[in-house]
Amino acid sequence: MKNDVLQRLAAARPAHLDPDLPTPSQVRQEELATLMSLPRTTRRARATTRSARVRRPLLSGLALATASVVAAVVMTDTAPERPGPAPSATLGSGSQVLLAAASHVERQPAASGKYWYVVETLVDRQKVPGKNYSIDIRQEVRWWTAAAKNRYWSQSLDVGARPATEADEAAWKADGSPMSWDMRDVTGEIVTYAGKGEIAHDVPGGIADSVPMGEVPLRLLPTLPTDAKALRKRLFELVDKHYNGPEWTLDRIVVEDAVQLATTLPSNPALRAAAYRLLAAEPGVRSLGDVKDHAGRTGYAVALTAEYAPGTERRLIFDKSTGMPLGQEMVSTRSGDGRKKGDLLSYTTFTMKWTNQAPPFNTDYSDPPADLRSVPVDELDVEAAR
After folding, report:
1. Residues 255, 284: contact at Cβ < 8 Å?
2. What is the C-alpha separation between 38 and 55, in angstroms, rounded?
3. pLDDT tens digits, residue range 284-330?
4. What are the angstrom distances between the C-alpha of 172 and each of 2, 203, 341?
5. Facing residues of 48 across strands?
6. What CA–CA distance (Å, rounded) separates 243 from 110?
7. Which residues are 348's β-sheet partners?
8. Nearest 5°: CA angle at 164, between 163 and 169?
9. Is 233 helix (H, G, I), strand (E, B) or coil?
10. Alpha helices in the chain (DSSP H)
11. Mean pLDDT across the chain, nearest whole number?
């Protein structure tokens, strides 16, 4: 718990918030937990990463950080009321599904290549202002990871927006089938049906240096234990070095890192299985049965309380035969802010493999905000590609 959270919180405070106003304890706890779960970047660095348009819809609609709570939050380590004990891993339970997926995934042959290649289709579901329908704002992000050198390349494409459901499509057609939507009050941009195609790529050492959410250094992956309890202990030790927060907050970040190990990081089969087993021990994990992901692939799913994002539930989808991750969803667990309980907030689909094919670009391509265009890279508080 070494990093000074005071400066990070102060930099993130929205201008309209008065730090002298009282804030309810639960709100203080939720805001700190959300901020602490973000990568360690300053407000300027987050703007830089945003300029590369590597959007993370998992955080859609959530207040990412406020600092009206600085003194009260940092001075307390009182945890919120925890959920009840984890259910036993009975047949059909969420724990049992994860344990079965772990058994499948650890039997997969360990592949190799120069790059771990991941394609993520990221979809943010938003209601169109002034209309009675929602749209899925879609983006595709391709990651190349040179695990041995701890370096990332990313390519981002705006692949266009679509009415979210059949009912939304009918309402969209009744609205005249518009090809663009003014979402500036919601997402800060005008989105189009056609999309813009390629909008950014980022190379190691470039101005954005954007990395997938999750901060387990790639060089440490081969050293992480493949026993679930030992893995949790080691992840907590790593988190404890980088964050200043109470134990319950650090536990939330450990779970977030475990999700990354279970999904998009280049974990070997044994480590991925250990991450599944760590998640299987989480309180309240439950089975959702057989499902199809948003790419039409059949799998089974479990639900986890998304503790870093209060009021949401994370749903992970796994291939039934291999145990490999197919995607995830974020679903609202309470009503408010224009959402109803059970509403789908965002979803992601994954495809991943090892490859020897290098990224098809070697320079940055992005359109950073005007106030960042002249800022030297070494003055940006972003972690250089490792």
Report:
1. no
2. 13
3. 899 999 999 999 999 999 999 766 677 889 999 999 999 999 999 99
4. 51, 39, 23
5. none
6. 33
7. 122, 328
8. 45
9. helix
10. 5-12, 25-36, 43-51, 70-74, 94-105, 166-174, 228-242, 247-262, 269-280
11. 75
| Cα gap 9→252, rounded to integer Å | 18
Side chain identity, residue 23: T
Beta strands in the chain (DSSP E): 115-127, 134-146, 151-163, 180-182, 190-192, 197-202, 286-292, 298-305, 312-319, 325-332, 344-355
Single out the residue of 132, 136, 138, 137 nearest to residue 172, CA to CA.
132
> What dihedral angle (degrees, nearest 10) is formed by the CA atoms of 370, 371, 374, 378?
-130
Four-residue CA torsion sign, 213, 280, 318, 217: positive
pLDDT per residue as tens digits for the range 109-144: 888 899 999 999 999 999 999 999 999 999 999 999
- The alpha carbon dihedral of 352, 357, 360, 365 has a sign of positive
CB atoms within 10 A of CB 361: 14
Q: What is the spatial distance between Cα 260 and Cα 352, in angstroms, rounded to a whole number?
A: 13
User: What is the value of pTM for the model shown?
Assistant: 0.71
Sole residue written with tokens 């145990």: 323
Helices (H) then strands (E): counts for the chain: 9, 11
Q: 């056609």: which residue's tokens?
A: 194
Say if residue 16's pLDDT is above 70.
no
| CB of 40 closer than 8 Å to CB of 3 | yes
Query: Dmax of the chain from CA atoms?
Result: 59
Distance CA 159, CA 191 (A): 10
**77: Cα separation from own chain's centroid:** 25
Give the separation between CA 229 and CA 340, rounded to whole angstroms: 36
Q: Residue 226: how many CB atoms within 10 A of its CB? A: 17
Q: How far apart are the C-alpha atoms of 306 and 333, rounded to whole Å? A: 10
Measured between its terminal Cα atoms, the distance across the chain in Å is 22
List the structure tokens of 140.
């595709």
Distance CA 115, CA 287 (A): 33
